[in-house]
Amino acid sequence: ISRIGLIVHKTKSQDFQVLAGSAGFLMAAYCVGAVGGVCALANVLGREVCELERLCVSGRWQEARVLQQRLIEPNAAVTRKLGVPALKQAMEWFGFHGGACRSPLQPLSQEETLTLRKDFSNNGWL
């Protein structure tokens, strides 16, 4: 977040926009001047990620914080924790076409699928 804030500060006199690279810190990025995000989680919870943007832009920080906190675990699951196979599985659960993983990626194991389901369920998404 400090790096995002520094980039925003150093480029404020230029025609330059800074985006967050993850829904896991999207609210914090808005706080330091980012104007949006490129978020893998938006493939699954697109409306919710867009709602977080609306809450931040309109200054509704209490509501934004609650939503941001609910997005952290599922975001981590479909990015750094379980990666693309988890993103594809979650997309299927939410009625989208995630499709099969391409080599060298492998589908989630049964244990990984349970972990993914828990990360979404614990936060009220499933």
TrEMBL record:
Keywords associated with the record: Lyase, Membrane, Transmembrane, Transmembrane helix
**Could you tell me which InterPro entries the record lists for this protein?**
Aldolase_TIM (IPR013785), DapA-like (IPR002220)
Does the entry feature the keyword Ribosomal protein, yes or no? no
Does the record carry Membrane as a key word?
yes
Instruction: List membrane-spanning regions.
Output: 23-45
Question: Could you mention a single GO BP entry for this protein?
Answer: glyoxylate catabolic process
A Pfam short name: DHDPS
> Which GO cellular component does the record give, naming just one?
mitochondrion
- Per UniProt, what is one GO molecular function of this protein? 4-hydroxy-tetrahydrodipicolinate synthase activity
**Oligomeric form and interacting partners:** Homotetramer.
Query: Which protein is depicted?
Result: 4-hydroxy-2-oxoglutarate aldolase, mitochondrial
Please report the organism this UniProt entry assigns to the protein: Gymnodraco acuticeps
Gene that this sequence comes from? hoga1
